[in-house]
Design goal:
The chain is elongated, with a radius of gyration of 21 Å. Strands 2-1-3-4-5 form a 5-stranded parallel sheet. The protein has 2 domains: 85 residues, NAD(P)-binding Rossmann-like Domain (Rossmann fold); 33 residues. Helices cover 42% and strands 18% of the residues. It has 6 helices and 5 strands, in the order βαβαβαβαβαα. It comes from candidate division WOR-3 bacterium. InterPro entries: D-isomer_2_OHA_DH_cat_dom. GO terms for molecular function: NAD binding; oxidoreductase activity, acting on the CH-OH group of donors, NAD or NADP as acceptor.
Length: 125
C-alpha cells in the first residue's frame, strides 16, 4: 500500500472523506505527527511543502497542491528531487463568477438595498 502524506491540517469532515475515499490504495498520514511515515510517502497533499518535510520524504514523487496556486513552492528544488507538482484549477470558473457577482453587488448596492428591504424600508429597493 502506498503512503499519502498530508502537509496541512484539513477540517475533520474533509479528513474523513480523504481517508474513506483513499483507504484501499493509500495509508494516509499527517505531518507533523507521523514522523517515520513521512519517509515512506510517495504522494503528498497540501498547500506548502516545508524543506524539512521534503528532506525527510525521500520517496516522494508527486505533490498535489490543495488549490490553484503553486507559487509558495520551490519548484526547482522539487524538480531536482524528481517530484512532480500538480494543482487544481477547476475552481477558476467559480472564482470568476464570484468576482463578477461581487462587482455587481458593489456597483448596484445590493447588500445595502437588501438590508433596507428586510428592515421594511421599501425606498431602499
Amino acid at each position: 500500500m502506498k503512503t499519502l502524506l498530508l502537509t496541512r491540517r484539513f477540517p475533520a469532515p474533509d479528513l474523513a472523506l480523504i481517508r474513506e475515499r483513499l483507504r484501499e490504495r493509500y495509508e494516509v498520514v499527517e505531518w507533523p505527527g507521523d514522523g517515520p511515515a513521512v519517509g515512506a510517502a510517495e504522494v503528498a497533499l497540501g498547500n506548502a511543502l516545508p524543506e524539512s518535510v521534503l528532506a525527510a520524504a525521500g520517496r516522494l514523487r508527486l505533490f498535489q497542491v490543495a488549490g490553484a496556486g503553486a507559487d509558495r513552492l520551490d519548484l526547482t528544488a522539487l524538480a531536482a528531487r524528481g517530484v512532480t507538482v500538480a494543482n487544481s484549477h477547476s475552481a477558476a470558473p467559480f472564482v470568476a463568477e464570484t468576482a463578477v457577482a461581487l462587482a455587481l453587488a458593489l456597483v448596484k448596492g445590493t447588500a445595502r438595498r437588501d438590508r433596507g428591504l428586510r428592515q421594511g424600508d421599501w425606498r431602499a429597493g
